[in-house]
Write a structure and sequence with these properties.
Layout: H1 2-8, H2 16-22, H3 28-39, H4 43-50, H5 62-65, H6 67-78, H7 80-98, H8 109-113, H9 117-126, H10 141-159, H11 169-173, H12 179-197, H13 203-215, H14 221-338, E1 347-348, E2 351-352, H15 359-369, E3 381-384, E4 387-390, E5 396-403, E6 406-411, E7 414-417, H16 418-428, H17 443-456
Antiparallel strand pairs: 1-2, 3-4, 4-5, 5-6, 6-7
Length: 457
């Protein structure tokens, strides 16, 4: 066991005692046969490595050489996790063979094949002489079943597929449970198409063909021994070459280390000389700085005095300009407060005309103009940016905001979309209501709106 794990899995060397306790009732041959199957190794070569006599000294046959690989391929066809691999292989083969665009994928394979149309077209493509007659646009399950049955019958006769490989059409059409048999049949179709018509072969079909070819070649016991001896000699030569290469690498490492030490000593000497020269230049620079410092300080004092005078004059001019602008703004605000602020109803005919400078108003106009009808109950009028009013049947003032590309309004302490609010008013106040004459704001409301606007300004 130590020899085996050193070669194939060194991490298990600490668990040998536990393994021997678990396999106390098993023979040496049973233990190593299990390990060979687990690590996918040849039993004869492992027995020779560890010095254990092969059972009955029988030469390995072609069946024993490829038994593990056959078991893996069969397991792929029979296990649920292997069905995904088969679907990928067949979907790729079908897309390339029929030149489908977009190609069939693993996810939509069964849905594409359920009606049998693609399968019948595949037979016509592989062998045009068949001229398969099928329902190209099946409208019910019976036509789908008939297409799939016709495909299975022709595939059995033309491709020579054995009966044990066939599947029930209902498993494909009605989404039956036995999808593994369906995929085994499709992979066999791809294999036979490759053998008869030389089509593109999936990877799993190539593996099966390689195994079938190797099964036809029998290797004698003497040939196996010669192969093992050749491998041992090759391994010894490789180990000797590796040893010599390691010695050469160690020698080169020692030489590189000596050269690195010499380079480090040279670098330190250069750094010391550079530091001495740097100190000398630094002392010379300090002396020159001290000589210039007095003249520089005098020049800075004069410049500071000139700068302070210019700053004082500029501040005085800015204060005068600010007082002038403030007086103009106050006069404009007083004039606006004295004017009457009648609402401007932004409608041309029955269409809302939005303010192009206001992105929010453009959204509002788009929503209002998209309504099926625009009675007085849904006619909005903009008071200011984000503030709108509806006059019918009584005045409602609300605020509108744009939240994540949706136009929301604040109503009754909550938020709703503008579309929902207007459609509700359409239901509550249809077009046949009595006409309500739009009225202007009264004087008090005008003053309140202007006061609010001036505060914002």
């Amino acid at each position: 066991l130590e020899t085996f794990y050193k070669r194939h899995n060194p991490t298990k060397l600490g668990d040998i005692e536990n393994i021997l306790k678990l396999a106390d009732d098993s023979t040496d041959e049973e233990i190593f046969s299990t390990l060979c199957k687990k690590y996918n190794l040849k039993k004869s070569s492992v027995f020779i490595e560890i010095g254990l006599e092969a059972p009955e000294n029988a030469p390995p046959s072609s069946a024993s050489r490829h038994a593990d690989l056959k078991d893996q391929l069969q397991g792929v066809k029979n296990k649920d996790e292997g069905e995904e691999i088969l679907r990928k292989e067949f979907a790729e083969w079908l897309s390339q063979t029929m030149n489908l665009n977009p190609p069939v994928t693993e996810a939509n394979l069964f849905s594409k094949l359920a009606d049998g149309v693609l399968l019948c077209r595949l037979l016509n493509l592989l062998n045009p002489a068949l001229k398969v007659n099928f329902a190209s646009r099946p409208v019910n399950i019976w036509q789908k079943l008939d297409n799939v049955k016709r495909f299975i019958e022709l595939a059995e006769t033309e491709f020579g597929i054995p009966k044990e490989q066939l599947f029930d059409p209902q498993d494909l059409v009605e989404d039956g449970r036995d999808k593994r048999q369906v995929m085994t049949f499709f992979i066999y179709i791809a294999k036979r198409a490759h053998q008869i018509f030389s089509t593109f072969a999936p990877q799993i079909v190539k593996l099966e063909l390689e195994i079938d070819q190797e099964d036809e070649v029998e290797i004698s016991h003497k040939e196996v021994e010669e192969m093992l001896k050749t491998q041992i000699k090759t391994k010894q030569v490789d180990e000797e070459a590796i040893r010599k290469a390691e010695e050469e690498r160690q020698r080169q490492l020692r030489q590189e280390e000596a050269e690195a030490r010499q380079r480090e000593a040279d670098r330190k000497a250069r750094e010391e000389a550079y530091e001495r020269e740097r100190r000398r230049k630094h002392e010379e620079m300090e002396r020159l700085k001290r000589e210039r410092r007095y003249a520089e300080e005098q020049r800075l004092r004069e410049e500071e005095a000139r700068r302070m005078e210019m700053h004082r004059r500029r501040n005085a001019a800015e204060e005068e300009e600010e007082r002038r602008r403030l007086a103009e703004r106050q006069a404009r605000i007083r004039a606006e407060c004295l004017e009457e602020d009648n609402p401007v109803f932004q409608y041309k005919g029955n269409q809302y005309v939005s303010d192009r400078r206001d992105p929010l108003d453009r959204h509002v106009g788009r929503i209002v103009n998209s309504l099926p009808s625009r009675p007085l109950a849904v006619k909005l009028h903009k008071v200011k940016n984000g503030m709108y009013v509806i006059e019918y049947p009584k005045r409602i003032v609300f605020y509108v905001r744009c939240v994540r590309d949706a136009v929301m309004i604040r109503v009754g302490g909550g938020w709703v979309t503008l579309e929902e609010f207007l459609f509700k008013r359409l239901r509550d106040y249809p077009e046949n209501n009595p006409v309500y004459v739009n009225r202007y704001y009264d004087r008090q409301e005008t003053v309140a709106v202007l006061h609010h606007r001036n505060k914002a300004f």
